Amino acid sequence: MTEQERLLELSKYNIMDTPPDDELDELAQIASVIFNTPISLVSLVDEKRQWLKAKVGIDIEETPRQNSFCQHALHSPNEVLVVNDALDDERFKNNPLVLDSPNIRFYAGAPIETPQGAVLGTLCIIDDKPRCLSDFQKKALQLLAKKAMSLLERRRLIIEQADKIGSDAARLKKLTDYVPGVIFQFEINESGKMSFSFISKGIANVHSRLTPQLLEAYPNQFFSVIHPDDVVLVQKSISEALREKDIWKVEFRILSDSGKTTWHFADSILERNRQGAITWYGTLQDITERKEYSRTLEQILFDISHVLRKPIANMVNLVTIIQDYGLDEETQKEYINMLKAVADELDEYTRQLNDDYHILREKKKESN
């Protein structure tokens, strides 16, 4: 892996300059106890510096990369870098960290390697006296470094998941805010207290006084905009759903401040938990146009069955008279003229009926 790839991998963990981590601090303390060293570190190396994520026995936060012992372990992920006596090592004998505080003589660092094979830094132990490290101790140091990597990987996954959840929630919020009608999550706890844990922006189209913020703070305000004649109906439907149902469906009217009435349909499923609380997941749709459409169709059917009955009956009677009675030619002409007048009346009415239906159908298309 190239240095550029390693730095890119380091950036994915978003770990540099973050606050102390209790678990990594404890890991550094364990290393000092196991190996009996005054200093132990979880050290991460970027392009220009060595930064100490966890540390025991030292107060500094970072050092220039060129002075770092850890940088020499970055490209040997399977090896523990051991410096028995820094004054006898050409790489380190003139290092400021050797010649001055903390006066490093002994160093051992196990690479902290990502699942992709990038070494982010080391878990290292440091002493101001020369020392040696057995193979068993090297293995122990590698296990601690592996544990440090596990903690860093878990932290990265938690952050990624939190970001994804936050992003998904934001996208879902945008979608729900702009779908037709209203989407809501309504709760009644075991003591009977009501609350809206979510309600989409579409509630503002139901009534000018309603907003998500208002209903989340004062859920009972919803009842204040229901038509007075329908309040009892809605309350009764809620009570019935609470007692014995898993769904809630009801049609009711909303009365605007200007006196305009609109019809709405609430449709919800109920989810009950063991403590007795109930959550309602549902929608609220404006069905005013649908109601008007249905009423118009009913009127058309009424007209067809009642208004048209009389002219059709007259036509039948006239035809019967012409067929069954021996009328002279002059009288037949009179009845035929009468029949034509009834037919014209019927034709005019059916044309008007067709025009009304066409207008209604176009309005229905526009509303969809």
Shape: rod-shaped
Oligomer: single chain
Poorly predicted ranges: none
As for the CATH topology of the largest domain, it is: Beta-Lactamase
* Overall helicity: 40-55%
Structural class: alpha+beta
For the secondary structure, the number of strands is 11
- Overall structural domain count: 3
CATH architecture of the largest domain: 2-Layer Sandwich
Order of helical and strand elements: HHEEEEHEEHEEHHHEEEHHH
Quick rundown:
The chain has 368 residues and is an alpha+beta fold. It is 46% helix and 22% strand.
Describe the protein's architecture and organization.
With 368 residues, the chain is of the alpha+beta class. It has three domains: 3-162, Beta-Lactamase (2-Layer Sandwich), CATH 3.30.450; 180-286, Beta-Lactamase; 291-367. Helix content is 46%, strand content 22%. The protein contains ten helices and eleven strands. The strands form two sheets. Strands 3-2-1-6-5-4 form a six-stranded antiparallel β-sheet. A five-stranded antiparallel β-sheet has the order 8-7-11-10-9, sandwiched between helices. A hairpin with a 5-residue loop joins strand 9 and strand 10 (261-272). Helix 2 (22-35) runs antiparallel to helix 4 and helix 8 packs antiparallel against helix 10 (329-367). The longest helix is centred in the middle third of the chain and has 44 residues, at 135-178. The mean pLDDT is 85.
What labels would you give this structure?
Beta-Lactamase; 368 residues; 46% helix; 10 helices; alpha+beta; 3 domains; 5-stranded antiparallel sheet; single chain
